[in-house]
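Input chain follows. Return structure tokens only.
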Amino acid sequence: MYAKAFLPPDPKISSVPVLPLDNRKKKYGNAGTGVAPAENHVYLLEDEPSYCKRLGLTWKLKEINLNEDQGIVTARRESKSGNGDIHEETFSVDTATRFWRGKEHLHLKDLIEEKVLSENGVQSLDDLSVLLGISWKPTPSGVFKRFHISDVWLDELAMERATQIQNETHKAFIKSRWMPGWVDKVEYGKFGRAKVTVTLFGGMVDSLYADFKKGQKAMLASSENTLKHWAGGTAGTAQMASKGILLEVSKTNKRVPLGSSGIQVSLETDLVTEGFRPRKVIRIRPESWPLLEVPREEYIHHNRDGIDIRFPTPNIFPKLR
């Protein structure tokens, strides 16, 4: 995975450890230097194929050395344009490695049976251009830093299908947890009424944004900065949400900051909760999305999960006399 991250904006309520600013320069045994940077609030997280597609990179497979059910692949990553740095790496493969070819899902033994690969020995792969899914697995002989190939996408159709499947998984998840966003402003009316204007978070599939339409009913619920639902007791997101009508849906033509979709929606509701304040994080659901219940472990309970319990101080340890 490739990450771009920043420092915890508020150390007191950080959902991850607050580390010294120079932590990236520290060496942690065999793990190496820079494995625990202080910049641990991630705003971009990509897997290997996503990273390569965004930067126009490809992996060229040079050779494979197979010994029945496992082997070592030598490959190099380079720009499709032929410019830039070239990075060479060795990877392990085994019978669990998945090969995607068009609409086919293959394994090492399938390619051996097709005579695409030899069962044993070293074989040239003629700089075959592919995209790789890279992971890690335990290795013998004290080798700590060898990567493992979990997936190989052999052609563009296979990659397109993987993207489609991942997009469908993403859409189903967001529809069940609701679209995240933050409150821009609240215009209060009488008797608890208010017009709440929010900006939707970026990075979602376009079809999800298209579901927010002017005049449609919607539900708005407060959330935590970790995007967990803030529950009153054991009440779910829908039980704590405010209902209303989408009065406006607009998208700015100006350059938007990273993390923003640039899409702003305004909802009129007759019930304003504490979470609807400027810069607070919310979740919003258009009426066309299914109304589902999320697991209880995704709730933040006001009594069970207070800040002192979630982020205990050294005072929890007994003092020695």
